[in-house]
Amino acid sequence: MLRLQRIANVFRAARLRRELDEELEFHLAERIDDLIGAGLSPREAEREARRRFGGYTRTREETGDADMARWLESLLQDLRYGARQLALNPAFTVVATLSLALGIGANSAMFQLINALRFRGLPVEEPARLAAVEWGPNFHGMGSFGGRNSRFTFAQLRQIQLRQKAFTGVMAFGTTRFNLSPSGEARYAEGLYVTPNFLDVLGVQPTLGAWLDPRTNAEDCSQAGALVNYQFWLRELGGDVNAVGGEIAIDGRTFPVAAVTPPSFFGVEPARRFDIALPVCAQALFAEDGRGRLADKTFWWLTPIGRLRPDWSAERASAHLRDISPAILRESLPESYRPDSAERYLANRLRAESAPAGVSSVRSQYENPLWILLASTGLVLAIACANLANLLLARACSREREIAVRTALGASRARLVSQLIAESAPLALLGAGLGAGIAGALSRAMVAFLQAGEAGLEIQLGVDWRVFAFTAGLAVATCLLFGLAPALRATRAAPADAMRGGRTSTAGSDQSGPRRALAAAQIALSLILLVGALLFGRSLQNLLATDPGLDAEGVLVAAVDARSSVAAPERRLIALEQLGDRLTARPEVESAAFALFTPFSGSGWNEHVHAADDPDPGEGVNVWFNGVGPGYFEAMRTPLLAGRDFQQRDDRGSPSVAIVNQRFAERLFGSDNPIGRSFRYPGALGETDPVFEIVGLVKDSKYSGLREERRAIAYVPVAQLEGVQNELSFVVRARGPLQGAMEGFRSELAQVDVGLKVEFSVLAVQVERSVMTERLMAGLSSGFGILAALLSTLGLYGVMAYMVARRRKEIGVRMALGAQGSAIRALVLGEVGRLTAIGLAIGLAGSVALSRYAESLLFGIGPNDVSTLAAGCVLLAVTAFGAAWIPVCRAVAVDPSEVLRDD
Amino acid sequence: MGAGKNDILQGTLALLVLATLSTRGPCHGYGLCGHIQAASTELLRVEEGSLYPALHRMQQAGWLRASWGQTEKGRRAKFYEITDLGRRQLADEKRSWAQLTQGVALVLGAGA
Hints:
Number of helices of chain A: 29
Strand order of the largest sheet of chain B: 2-5-4
Oligomer: heterodimer
Helix content of chain A: 40-55%
Strand content of chain A: 5-15%
CATH topology of chain B: Arc Repressor Mutant, subunit A
Number of domains of chain B: 1
Helix content of chain B: 55-70%
Structural class of chain A: alpha+beta
């Protein structure tokens, strides 16, 4: 408390000084009175009083020291001095603050995103004790995969829950979308299927209502209700307390609204929101066979998360899970697996992975790019700091004499260094403050960009202690970075030399050494960033230049949900075919066809395929499948190279046929003509292998993204597939704007079947989304690259201008002795060339060392592409010489007579 | 500095100030000088220049409390007053002073 008093006194120093003066004056006045009383004259009395009192000023100082924390007072003085300096040089202040703010802001923004995805604990009870159950390396499993993080089948989950001892409970969830619209255009909510103990394991209490008893049998759907997210409750249910207990229509069925989550709870996937959760049993209600994924041992759709027992670590849980894996796998082995698959399945092992921040597919997708971006912003900030250090070095040099005088008078070096650093603190504070604002705007913009690419993506930004500590740490680090070097440098000069002062007449290399080193370092860092920007830019260019094998422009995708169709399941395909015919007849539509999957949607189906007559099939060729209707290739503008398209007659009653792409033909038949040949893939255990006759050959096209290598693709007629009638899409090539085709589709839909629901998307947008990460990297890294080049140009300009100013006399003397302008130019440019060459050499080494971290994000270009490295060097060299232009002109314009007269 | 007058030993000033304030009640700096001198029958002399830093340090340490008031002559002065903490400190210092003088006396006695 008393210590605080001394600190507080610093802030009322003026009043304390006044009071102290008054106190001491009183003492003197009393003494004088007494002395006069003793017979001295007033003048003598005053002299005597002062003599007796001793050193008035010293007493005053010492007494003040007792009152105040002097270190704080001097710190404040230094800060004030620094702030005054900033106010005196507004141009310097603005440039410095902006470059710092941009640097700190960009860093902090990247960190906010990484923090939201990686570090921040889930808003649940003791998130540190959560662990996800995962598969070990070399996982092998076959079947259907549904949803994000689709890792486990329901049978496996039951076995894990039954046998594990490491967790107080294991819950699981699967992701899905729920259609809230009763008919017409679908309106989707982000959905979860969860086990009854979902909230219990997380330790989350509903804000309203009550959720299932955690001990409820997961297959028992008698009490199934919906758990709705707080935000969804506000948005869709009007925040009405009475909504709990009411009903909500989901995928054509009604469920009671059982409970509302707390406001902070967003689920267990950071960057994802969920709107509605239903118990896993509801999946069976929606299934046509009434059992659905719960009974299907080959359907992978769940992510299990457990709460570790108090004395269990994730490592111990991992070992335990590994031990019980064989039993779990034996009991959950799908009956349909052939012996070789079963053997590989049984060799799988489970492990536990600590999951305080939840599980996230978004994280694995964006974490690496974000770290690279954070590193880039770090380099930009370093360059900005180097600039400031340079400017402050110049300022420190101009204060050489002041510092020398103070050193001579006995100021310690530590005191002077701390003073100089404290003077740069206001700049760092200003930069960090402004940077925090920039960080907020930048991170929000990035989230908006990512959200445009992916529905349901929601990154909870916000400043927690980590973000605050990171930004504050940056401010301190930058302050030290740009304040320390000049401070050490300025206080090093021997006072006698500095006081003798004056300008050195030659290039005093020890004077500009650190500044030149900084300039070279800036060039090196800029080169690394520029090379990165060029690599990412060219990757994007390469991606966009790849031939997708289809024309996405002008194609509307209409995903039709036929589960609540008025037609019986076996009649639905016919209804859809009718819809297709009616669509094609409309003037807004050029062509329309079915597809089971649309390219770039992320869904797919693959099989290991052999030529039908291959005697020793071995592993087979990994082939991607799609079911399409007649006219699909025409609608997609994928050229049919040989054979025929599917026709109406290719249905269940006729032999199975397929159209394959060039890659498929190459892989299975080499250069032979594939038309008329047959292929097969292994059927389930005890069933014969499906065999297909190839009737057509089409050009290669992309299946799920522009990045992918050429894939072998086989297309089969939708009409020959089973159980797909509920989840087909139409690809519609529109005449004119897509809006027209959409209107046309809606009106035909209502006439064919009122129970059909549709969701539209634009194929070109899906293609665009598949290059999102690349676009993000290319855009941001080139922004940072340009910023870095700009900052280091400024830095180099500063160093060269300073060098010319310092060597003005030398240049004048040389000119007086007959040096030509060209020689002077060569002198300055030689210096620039040296700095640039050193910087580029270091930068090249750095680029080569660092670029491999970006390799996985590149496309069609190696990490050490020579032409890219060369382009980066040339670009920087050109800007470097551009930056030197004004100093060169100034050097050539030096008037020798004027310079010589100066002395 | 007249002969026979002792400058106050380093560290004993606080003891003298605390003792004076505890017996005489609130007092200003000038008054303290006078009291200490008078009470010691002019044997001790307070160096005026070192009194004030000591007073302020003791105030920061919480041994003294200060307030502004009027003297009989109508001048504004800062009056110091001992606190409870100060009284405890006084007791401590008295004890250590007694030990010091006793020890010194024994050494001198042995030497004599």
